Amino acid sequence: MLFNSYAFIFIFLPLAVAGYLLALRMAGPFAASAVALAFSAGFYLFGEHHHQWLIFVSIAFNFVVGHAILAAGPRTRKPWLILGLVANLGVLFAFKYSGFFVGQINLLLGAQIPDPGLSLPIGISFYTFTQIAFLCDCYARHADRTDPVRYGLFVTYFPHLIAGPILHHREMVPQFMRRRITRLPVRLYAGVGMFALGLAKKTLLADPCGWIASEIFASAELGPVQFVSAWVGALAYTGQIYYDFSGYSDMAIGISYMMGIRLPYNFNSPYKSRSIVEFWRRWHITLSRFLRDYLYIPLGGSRKGKARRYLNLAATMVLGGLWHGAGWTFLAWGAIHGGALALAHGWRDLRMPRVPSFLSYTLTLFLVVMAWVPFRAPTMEIANTLWAGMLGLGGFSFPALGPLSPVYEALHIVPGQISFGVPDLLLIGTALLLAAVAPNSQELMRRFRMGLQSPGYEIAGRTRGVSVRMTWRWAILIGVLFAVAARSIGGYSEFIYFQF
Predict the structure, then answer these.
(1) Among 170, 93, 180, which residue's Cα sits nearest to residue 128?
(2) Terminal C-alpha separation, the chain
(3) pTM for the whole thing?
(4) I want to staple 474 with a disulfide (CB 3.0 to 4.6 A). Which of 76, 337, 448, 480 is the partner?
């Protein structure tokens, strides 16, 4: 089931929120958790996904192993942790990476090992990493014992299940144990506002940009792409992935606020970054946190000298790229970001002259856009074709501008010739300009005195000394935005991070 579908918006979501809130009020937090778990399981099982049973086996296994770690003594905890990590990573490898590695072995050695042909279960990367974090937190004594219902809800909680954020046990389970929700009208109001903003990002900006990007990346399979077309395709995808992922994050946060639950902030205007280091503090914040806490620091972090630190940064990002998918394109994306992070830290360590802000911003955005090309391209050959076009190696002829057709009309691709509509170019420019200068969703909510804060804050009677109040102006704006966004729902396109 997709957040951007009528069935979810008008049937599933109202029933899930009302069921949870009524159960909490009438029967207490355990009953409410059981109701939310039932809705979350139904959300995951709805649709024709592959290997849906796997998540429930994974939950049972990790619940047992996690509590065995908590019950074990200092000498017996580690074997349990190793068992859990090996099992989780082994299952992830089998379903996500075995086909890729078999293909590479066959290519290099001329072997004929059959492809396992395992279909990728939806959300496997997120629920596997979430539970790996749980096992590591149990080992470090940062997690507490819980019951199977709340643990199952922690993993399957439907706002985050398919595309994150990656959660910590200690962030969520205490919230499932609350007996009442304070200031529920304000939370509902804030949740609907955030959901509407996210839906608008998905339907009005991400999907149209995605149609443009898909056509141009498809044209790269037919031959060289000229300069303007290549840049339009790369920038269209830059807008698509920003508003697709940001929209999902907003919708997940909004749904949770309707239920009185706070998810960690996962997105903070990354296209405003003035360095690649800052970009990774703003983009997919919970993944950056996971890679730092459970990969970079265990590898040694910055404790073993500067050279080792740069190597650890590069290795962490390459593995982070591989987490997104099994392919050389994702490895290339991770290697680009890993090398850039090592270079940025090395520049600072060598006390080199500070780069002017505008130049630093431009270089950062240029790097991010160039790196999105292999992230989107199905093969490195197509990525190389787009890169060549962006560098002018495919020619400089300006494509014919199409008529002033609706923004949402698909491009017509002819081998060697691409025609844009003027609104297509305006759409991409507007989307990127908003990402670069406009306040993000959380800032907008605060501006309208909604009291929705970054992680560590709660919606309360007062926020930074300002009374929380609901305004008719904001309600009308949200209502209009929601109506336009809902009217624009088309073919229920999946979110990009569903693939991972």
Answers:
(1) 93
(2) 16
(3) 0.87
(4) 448
